[in-house]
C-alpha cells in the first residue's frame, strides 16, 4: 500500500490522523470525544471470532467484554460483567452473580441465560475441534446452569485454580445470543455482536475492519480510565503488511497507531515524536521446545547443554531494543508465581562442553559432535520470518560447543502439519496467558495432542499446580514446574515476548491489557 492510499481512501475527516504534529506535548491534554483513528495492523486475522482464533485479539477485543478482568498492574482478578463469585462443591463449581443493566449492542440483555448459552456454544466449538485455546481453559468442563435470572454456575470435574483468570481471556468473552445462532464460519467472517465499547460496521477480508462507537456503553473494565462510551467516534483497523510502509505512514501522520514497528525503526519513530506503548506478554515467552520422540532431543545432556550454550543477553542486545528482556524462565516475569531460573540456564559455554563430554558427545573432525555414529544435528522449525536473525545467531552460538542447528522456516500453512507429524527436533513457540496454566497447552500431553513422547512426571506436576486452590501451595508447585522444565530441558527459554504499539503525538489514552493487547476505549485524539 503506498503512503497516499490511506488519505485517498478516507479523506481528511475531522479528527482523522493524517497530519499529526511531530512535537510531544509537555502535558497530556484533557480527553476529547470524537474523531476517526486509523490503526495500521501488520496482518489481517484469519478468523475474527476469538473463541476460534487468538489471532484477532487486537481487533475483535474492541467489541467484547468478559466476566472478570485482570488488573493491568498487579495481575489481581477483578469483577467485571460478573460482580461477585463463590466456589462451591469442593471448589469444583463456580457460582457467579451477573451485573444487571448490561446489554449487547443489538439490545439483547446479558443475563444468566445468555452466559449459559455462551458456554454451551463454546463447548460445541471445542467438541468440533474449532476452539483449541478455549478447550484448554475449559478442560474438565461439566455444565453451565442458570441458577436464577442473574446467577450462573460453572461446574468442572476437578478444581481449577486458574478458572477466574481464564474468564478474563477473550476466547471466553460474552457474545449476543443473536451471534451464537450464527454458524462458526459466519462468526469467523466478522458477524459478531458484543457488549463492548465498539461495534463492527464493516469487514473487508484481508484489507480492513471498521468500528463505530457504542453510544450506550456504560460498564467498562475496572482497568479503564473512564466509564461511559469510548471517546473515538470511529476506529479502522487497516492492514498494511510491509513494516517499512507502516513506519512511513506513522511518521507522515496517515495513521494514528501502528503495530509491529521494525526494531531498527525505533530510533527514527521516536525522533519523530511517536510514542511507543509496550508491554511484556504474560505467558510462556519465546522458547525452543524439544521433540522428545527424536533420538538427539531425548538425550538429557543435549538439552542441558543447550541451556548454557545460548547467550540470551547477546540475542537481545544484537537484535532487539531497550524494551526487550532476555528470558529467565519459560514463563515471563508478568505471570503470577514466576520464578527466576537463571542459575539453571546461565550462559556458560565451557559448562555446556563439559556436559556434552560427560554425555558421550565427542568433537568430530568437522567440528560437529557425535555419539555412537550419530551427529549432534538438530532441525528447528518456526513460521514467523522475522525470527530468522534470532535463529541464525542461536545457530552460531550452538556451533561454538559443537552443535549443528539446521534452520527450517515454514509457512503458517505448513507448520501445523509438520508439528503434528513430529518430523522436527525443536520448534520455536510462545503462548500468551498470564496464569501458570498457560503451560498446559504447550507442555502437557493431556492437552497437547502433538506431543509424541509424553513425559508423565511433568504432566503430573502440571496437573497438580492447576488444581491447587491455595496460593502458597500453588506458588511452590509452579516453582517446581519451572525448575523441572529448565533443569530437564523441557523448554529452552530465549526471550520474553513483547507487544509494541506506536501512537501519534496527538493520540493519547491507549493502554495495553493483560496479557498484551491494545485497548482503545480510553483513546482520544487531542486538538491540533
Strand content: 15-25%
Radius of gyration: 24 Å
End-to-end C-alpha gap: 27 Å
Count of individual beta strands: 24
What's the overall geometry?
Answer: globular
Give average pLDDT, whole number. Answer: 92
Count of DSSP-assigned helices: 18
Q: Supply the helix-strand structural class.
A: alpha+beta
User: How many strands, which pairing sense, and closed or not: the largest β-sheet?
Assistant: 7 strands, mixed
Report the helical percentage: 25-40%
Short description:
With 528 residues, this protein is α+β, with helices and mostly antiparallel strands. α14 (388-399) links the parallel β16 and β17 (404-409).
Can you characterise this structure?
Belongs to the bacterial solute-binding protein 5 family. It is found in: Periplasm. Keywords: Signal, Transport. The protein is α+β, with helices and mostly antiparallel strands. The chain is 28% helix and 22% strand. The strands form seven sheets. The protein has a seven-stranded mixed sheet with strand order 8-9-10-1-11-20-12. Strands 17-16-18-13-19 form a five-stranded mixed sheet. A four-stranded antiparallel sheet has the order 4-5-7-6, with helices on one face. A hairpin with a 6-residue loop joins strand 2 (68-70) and strand 3 (77-79). 48% of the residues are buried. The model is unreliable at 11-25 (pLDDT under 50).
Defining traits:
528 residues; alpha+beta; 7-stranded mixed β-sheet; 5-stranded mixed β-sheet; 18 helices; 24 strands; 28% helix; globular
Amino acid at each position: 500500500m503506498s503512503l497516499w492510499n490511506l488519505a485517498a481512501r478516507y479523506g481528511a475527516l475531522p479528527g482523522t490522523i493524517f497530519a499529526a504534529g511531530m512535537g510531544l506535548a509537555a502535558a497530556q491534554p484533557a480527553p476529547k470525544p470524537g474523531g476517526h483513528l486509523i490503526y495500521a495492523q501488520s496482518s489481517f486475522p484469519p478468523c475474527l471470532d476469538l473463541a476460534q482464533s487468538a489471532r484477532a485479539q487486537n481487533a475483535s477485543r474492541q467489541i467484547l467484554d468478559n466476566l472478570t478482568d485482570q488488573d493491568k498492574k498487579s495481575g489481581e482478578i477483578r469483577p467485571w460483567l460478573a460482580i461477585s463469585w463463590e466456589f462451591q462443591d469442593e471448589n469444583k463449581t463456580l457460582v457467579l452473580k451477573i451485573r444487571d443493566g448490561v446489554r449487547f449492542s443489538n439490545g439483547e440483555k446479558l443475563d444468566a441465560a445468555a452466559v449459559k448459552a455462551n458456554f454451551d456454544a463454546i463447548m460445541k466449538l471445542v467438541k468440533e475441534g474449532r476452539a483449541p485455546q478455549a478447550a484448554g481453559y475449559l478442560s474438565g468442563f461439566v455444565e453451565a446452569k442458570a441458577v436464577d435470572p442473574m446467577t450462573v454456575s460453572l461446574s468442572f470435574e476437578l478444581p481449577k485454580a486458574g478458572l477466574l483468570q481464564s474468564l478474563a481471556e477473550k476466547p471466553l468473552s460474552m457474545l449476543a445470543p443473536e451471534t451464537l445462532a450464527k454458524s462458526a464460519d459466519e462468526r469467523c467472517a466478522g458477524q459478531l455482536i458484543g457488549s463492548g465499547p465498539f461495534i463492527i460496521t464493516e469487514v473487508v477480508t484481508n484489507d480492513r475492519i471498521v468500528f463505530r462507537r457504542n453510544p450506550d456503553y456504560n460498564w467498562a473494565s475496572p482497568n479503564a480510565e473512564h466509564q461511559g462510551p469510548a471517546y473515538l467516534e470511529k476506529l479502522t483497523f487497516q492492514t498494511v503488511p510491509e513494516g517499512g510502509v507502516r513506519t512511513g505512514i506513522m511518521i507522515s501522520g496517515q495513521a494514528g497507531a501502528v503495530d509491529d514497528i521494525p526494531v531498527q525503526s525505533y530510533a527514527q519513530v521516536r525522533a519523530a515524536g511517536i510514542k511507543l506503548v509496550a508491554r511484556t506478554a504474560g505467558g510462556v515467552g519465546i522458547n525452543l521446545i524439544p521433540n522428545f520422540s527424536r533420538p538427539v532431543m531425548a538425550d538429557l545432556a543435549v538439552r542441558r547443554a543447550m541451556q548454557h550454550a545460548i547467550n540470551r543477553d547477546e540475542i537481545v542486545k544484537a537484535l532487539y531494543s531497550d524494551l526487550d528482556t532476555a528470558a529467565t524462565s519459560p514463563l515471563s516475569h508478568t505471570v503470577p508465581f514466576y520464578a527466576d531460573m537463571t542459575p539453571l540456564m546461565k550462559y556458560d559455554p565451557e559448562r555446556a562442553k563439559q556436559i556434552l563430554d560427560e554425555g558421550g558427545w565427542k568433537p568430530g573432525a568437522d567440528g560437529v559432535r557425535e555419539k555412537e555414529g550419530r551427529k549432534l544435528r538438530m532441525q528447528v522449525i518456526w513460521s514467523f520470518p522475522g525470527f530468522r536473525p534470532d535463529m541464525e545467531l542461536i545457530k552460531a552460538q550452538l556451533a561454538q560447543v559443537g552443535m549443528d542447528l539446521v534452520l527450517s522456516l515454514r509457512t503458517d500453512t505448513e507448520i501445523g502439519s509438520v508439528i503434528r507429524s513430529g518430523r522436527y527436533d525443536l520448534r520455536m513457540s510462545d503462548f500468551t496467558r498470564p496464569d501458570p496454566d498457560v503451560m498446559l497447552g504447550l507442555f502437557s500431553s493431556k492437552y497437547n495432542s502433538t506431543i509424541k513422547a509424553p513425559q508423565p512426571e511433568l504432566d503430573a506436576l502440571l496437573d497438580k499446580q492447576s488444581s491447587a486452590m491455595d496460593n502458597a501451595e500453588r506458588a511452590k508447585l509452579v516453582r517446581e514446574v519451572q525448575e523441572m522444565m529448565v533443569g530437564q530441558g523441557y523448554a529452552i527459554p530465549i526471550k520474553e515476548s513483547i507487544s509494541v504499539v506506536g501512537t501519534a503525538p496527538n493520540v493519547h489514552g491507549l493502554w495495553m491489557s493483560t496479557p498484551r493487547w491494545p485497548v482503545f476505549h480510553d483513546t482520544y485524539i487531542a486538538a491540533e
